[in-house]
Amino acid sequence: MNFNPNFEEIGNAFIQHYYSKFDVQDPAARSSGLSDLYDPMNSYMTFEGVQVKGRDSILQKFAALPFRMIQRAITKTDCQPLPDGSILVAVIGQLKVVSFSF
Predict the structure, then answer these.
(1) What is the 3-class SS of the chain, one letter each residue?
(2) Which domains does the chain possess?
(3) CA angle 72-11-31, nearest 5°?
(4) Other C-beta atoms lying within 10 Å of the C-beta of residue 95
(5) pTM of the predicted structure, to 2 decimals
(6) 13 Cβ contact partners less than 8 Å away, ≥ 6 residues apart
(7) CA 55 to CA 61: how far, in whole Å?
(8) Alpha-carbon Rg of the chain, whole angstroms?
(9) Mainly localized where (predicted)?
């Protein structure tokens, strides 16, 4: 087993990095910024009961969302080291979407 002793620090840095890429208004810039953070085949995401698999499907789901801005209130983050040296990161909180109607 190869647990990463810095799992908490690395996990929290990842959370900050991820949301810095997500928190842009331009959907193309968001997709570009997040692209390298998802595996082409083995990434999964569930949003409001809809599950998508793979980088392209996840980025398409983000692009199809009917809002551009999100305000979030993160209430809890948990980082767990895994035996292969990777880190499982869970973020819990609330989202408030800002819709644009033109």
Answers:
(1) CCCCCCHHHHHHHHHHHHHHHHCCCCHHHHHHHHHHHCCCCCCEEEECCEEEECHHHHHHHHHHCCCCEEEEEEEEEEEEECCCCCEEEEEEEEEEEECCCC
(2) 7-98 (3.10.450.50)
(3) 55
(4) 11
(5) 0.84
(6) none
(7) 10
(8) 15
(9) cytoplasm
Cα–Cα distance, 58 to 44 (Å, whole number): 8
**Residue 62: half-sphere exposure toward Cβ, Cα within 13 Å:** 26
Tell me the pLDDT tens digit for each residue of 28-58: 898 999 999 999 999 999 988 999 999 999 9
Phi-psi bin for 54: left (phi > 0), alpha (psi -120 to 50), beta? Answer: left
Task: Please answer whether residues 21 and 37 qualify as being in contact, where contact means their C-beta atoms are separated by less than 8 angstroms.
Answer: yes
| Residues 60, 65: Cα–Cα separation, whole Å | 9
